[in-house]
Amino acid sequence: MAKRxxxxxxxxxxxxxxxxxxTVQSVYEAYxxxxxxxxxxxxxxDMVLLFLHGAMVSAECDDCEGDLIARIRAIVGPxxxxxxxxxxHCHLTAQMVEASDAIITVKEYxxxxxxxxxxxxxxxxxxxxxxxxxxTSALFDCRMVGFYxxxxxxxxxxxxxxxxxxxxxxVLSVSFAHGFPWGDTPDTGSRMLAITDNDPAxxxxxxxxxxxxxxxxxxxxxxxxxxxxxxxxxxRQSNGLAVLADTADNAGGGAPSDxxxxxxxxxxxxxxxxxFGAVWDPICAQVCxxxxxxxxxxxxxxxxxxxxxxxxxxxxxxxxxxxxxxxQGSLGGSRVPMGLCAWVEIGGVDxxxxxxxxxxxxxxxxxxxxxxxxxxxxVALKSSWHFxxxxxxxxxxxxxxxxxxxxxxxxAAIDYxxxxxxxxxxxxxxxxxxxx
Length: 436
Description:
28% helix, alpha/beta, 2 domains, three-stranded parallel β-sheet, 14 strands
């Protein structure tokens, strides 16, 4: 879009990692400082556009994105327009908002609208740089911690409502920052952000209006997932393909992705025509590669990373395929590396073992290795919700499962140490006092 409009474009660093623990401080500082050097040496700039997650934490900084944006502001000065697109699972902080002209989160979960939100950000920032807009932002703290997929109600209708409000005169953008529940920072939680054109009172009013609508739906928004046995019972009743989500061991939320409680239950039930993956176990992937296709061997699979990994399973497997540099499709047409991967057969279940930790996004995480999903009755995969974008069209039933693992959905019980607000829903039923 910038090139289309005749602007000179300078690109800086792009880096990506799966969620896990805090980023090593020296790594964060090296990447940050590379971006800052580019901002200092290639300017002056009229506009700075950033593609960030929004929940990055390093060993010594709880708000890496806020730190980065504030340092960029110090370099480019007050007249340059600074904007950022964030994942909606961000810790939306006052520092991020105050140091930028516009923050926009994606609206959808699965995140299928990055391109649309980026175009929205570009338009706001370009008009700001030209002096046609004067963005004013307001944050409303919903006092909630939660998990809010937008493909189901009531969040689906709330997202539609956001779009309607954006058509009001003076309103440039509204964003709901769902928050990242398993990240412990002072600002962990759900917040509503509104951006208006030079109207701070309108921004505050809109942020509060929509934030209170979300708050009013808080009970209905609580995730209520079936346990493993109930989920397998539901899958058995499906007429076609049932896709089961191993929600608590999702690498995309920071879990190890090597807990095999769901697989163990499937094997105990002797399910047939099933697939399971991807189990992050580089050791077993390498053992299978060394053994070769067709080998039958004993394997101690999973349960390696820590307490949330559960116990390993001692299994007899047959190696059906090995791929040394495997990738799967992801959101927006991108590809995600899975590294050295093996397809092993265990009874009636085809299992994918990967060596680069990642959640499953697409059916080709299975089919790319040669696993034919045609005729399968169950595909169990390690993801919380992103998989629905690609698996939805082929599934007869989608069943999120309350599995054991690192990212549990019992938000009231999370042992936050840094979170500033310890009285939040669902720990407290009505923290905003709306029903008093």
